[in-house]
Specification:
single chain, 590 residues, mainly beta, six-stranded mixed sheet, four-stranded mixed sheet, 9 helices
Length: 590
């Protein structure tokens, strides 16, 4: 199950959404909001059962006779925000017949901040055509799969209206569903879905979507139905759901302290060796909703079903690291294991015994416990953490980026071929393999390449001659072939910014160290959504940072004057971990 920090973050998000009470009305048209169950509270009731959490919904109303053009547009806006009307039949009543047939609101949802501005210069009593414009600021887009992409810039959305008989109707609407930020805060939930990787392994891959809560279903049922609908296209090639194709959800009920999830008969066909993965998918996706409970899977109401505890599936954590991860750093040319009291201890084997032989270490804590590093300037070498071990070259190359490990024991690195070309390599058990990459990664110089701990994604700092950017891609494994697909730009290059380092904090979030005009910035980014909290600003830096390492709830950095420091998220302050020539902080994997 998720860590306490992650559960707390989810609870805070739900509380923020649940606390919005919205009434939209506009002269001749409008809507009402009602709670889906019980009385509506202005603030979240911390004692209530999260499985039956009440929330506000909008009930759309059809256009009123004689409504003005701006009232028609306001009514249309309100009707678009109603998720009771799944087919948007009432929203379509604000459109002409032809526009209702052409309008495709499912293609995309556009989120905005703004207001409408009618054309006040027209004599509407004699006009047969007019325009009402929605002006404001773009906030985001939500695609048909639930993928959320931040947007910037001015919003100008014209609505062309015509007279149909004596009534105004919209003839040219935007080819999307338009929702205000308040609409999204009220109706949507940000949900992390979980799927097993395509290659057999114990673990899950996170896939984040934004979904509207359908009033007839509620939060838990909406989460499970979206899980059954499958992963988004950005990660689909790297995962394989344990739920058989065609599986549907009958209902979710609570019996005492047991959450009963009743599926259709397809679940009966799950192979025995995939049943644990299915259970893990379910409880991780339900997350905080089943914390401290027992879960029972039934098929078409048959009882008893399969009962299990969510806590038994900690091993499927996509963050891989659990508890308080061990930190490492270099000092005097050797890799040391950090100790809370006293000086660090050199690790066993070549990395702790052969000072000055290597740089840029990365640690694998799964068996066999090993260190990867750049050695002799001619490639990536690996040495087990066993006394007397020696460095063995796993990847040959003279211009390799710092290595990183994934949960499968694969080490990754990028090779600079020229100023305009890079290659990506991975190796397992000393066997190197060139990774197929698209032009989005191959053209330019890859300065840093970091694989996520769950082995599902890579993040890279790329210098294409126009500046540094951060690219993110999905790892696809097909037998002997390894490929990076769906490469997209997370951070664009800018003249006033140089990206210096990146580190995976968890399965979905990346820390980015940048040099800007004012100094340095350390900012968290969601690889699926962009800046995790633009309003919060970057993490405060007290000194110049040379490199960073991260793990869930943990950040460490190499600072000037030979220090390794750690950041406390609670106190928002940096503390010294090591000094006197300490460099290269490392957390396992990543």
């Amino acid at each position: 199950m998720p860590t306490e920090r992650r559960r707390g973050a989810v609870t805070r998000r739900l509380a923020a959404f649940a606390g919005v009470v919205l009434v939209l009305a506009g002269g001749g048209a409008g809507c009402a909001t009602v709670p889906t169950s019980g009385p509506r509270l202005a603030q979240e009731d911390k004692t209530k059962d999260t499985l039956s959490e009440p929330y506000v919904r909008i009930i759309a109303e059809p256009p009123k006779q004689g409504a003005s053009p701006d009232d028609i547009v306001k009514g249309f806006q309100a009707a678009m925000a109603s998720f009771d009307d799944a087919e948007l039949r009432i929203a379509k009543q604000y459109l002409t017949q032809g526009a209702a047939q052409r309008w495709n609101p499912r293609r995309q949802t556009r989120v905005y901040e703004g207001k409408i501005e009618p054309d006040r210069t027209q004599d509407l009593e004699h006009a047969t055509r007019t325009t009402v414009t929605l002006k404001g600021t773009k906030v985001a887009t939500i695609d048909s799969e639930g993928g959320y992409t931040p947007a910037t810039g001015a919003l100008v959305e014209p609505f062309t209206l015509v007279k149909v008989g004596a009534e105004w109707r919209i003839d040219i609407p935007p080819d999307a569903r338009l929702l205000s930020s308040d609409d999204v805060r009220r109706a949507y939930r940000r949900v992390d879905l979980y799927y097993p990787p395509a290659i057999p392994a114990t673990g899950l891959v996170a896939d984040r979507v934004w979904v509207p809560i359908e009033p007839s279903r509620g939060v838990p049922e909406t989460r499970v139905r979206r899980l059954l609908a499958g992963p988004t296209s950005s990660i689909a090639s790297a995962v394989r759901s344990a739920f058989p194709a065609g599986t549907d959800l009958n209902r979710i009920t609570v019996e005492g302290d047991t959450v009963v999830v009743d599926f259709t008969s397809q679940v009966d066909t799950v192979p025995v060796d995939r049943l644990d993965a299915l259970k893990a998918q379910l409880v991780w996706t339900l997350g905080d909703l089943v914390t401290g409970r027992t879960v029972e899977i039934r098929v078409n109401g048959s009882s008893p079903g399969v009962r299990f505890r969510p806590a038994d599936y900690h091993a499927y954590d996509p963050n891989v690291l659990t508890g308080s991860p061990q930190a490492y750093y270099m000092q005097g040319g050797r890799l040391l294991q950090y100790k809370e009291k006293g000086t660090g201890t050199p690790v066993p084997g070549a990395a702790g015994e052969q000072a000055g032989k290597f740089t840029e270490p990365a640690v694998l804590t799964q068996y066999p416990v090993s260190v990867a590093a750049l050695v002799n300037g001619d490639g990536v070498y690996v040495a087990p953490m066993t006394p007397g071990s020696a460095w063995q070259r796993w990847i040959a190359g003279r211009n390799m980026s710092p290595p990183s490990w994934d949960r499968y024991g694969a080490v990754w690195s990028a090779e600079k071929v020229s100023a305009h070309e890079s290659r990506v390599w991975t190796a397992v058990a000393g066997q190197p393999r060139r990774v197929e990459i698209s032009e989005e990664l191959s053209y330019g110089r890859i300065i840093k390449l970091r694989v996520s701990r769950d082995g599902a994604r890579v993040a890279a700092i790329l210098d294409d001659g126009l500046g540094t950017s951060v690219r993110v891609g999905t790892i696809l494994r097909l037998g002997e072939q390894v490929r990076i697909d769906d490469v997209r730009t997370l951070i664009d290059s800018r003249d006033d910014q140089q990206i210096e380092d990146i580190a995976w904090q968890d399965a979905t979030d990346l820390l980015v160290l940048s040099k800007v005009k004012s100094g340095q910035e350390l900012t968290p980014w969601s690889v699926m959504e962009g800046r995790t909290d633009p309003d919060a600003g970057p993490i405060k830096l007290d000194s110049k940072i040379e490199s960073i390492a991260a793990a869930p709830d943990h950040v460490i950095a190499a600072a000037d004057e030979g220090q390794v420091i750690s950041y406390s998220t609670d106190k928002q302050a940096w503390n010294q971990l090591a000094k006197e020539g300490a460099t290269n902080p490392v957390y396992p994997l990543g």
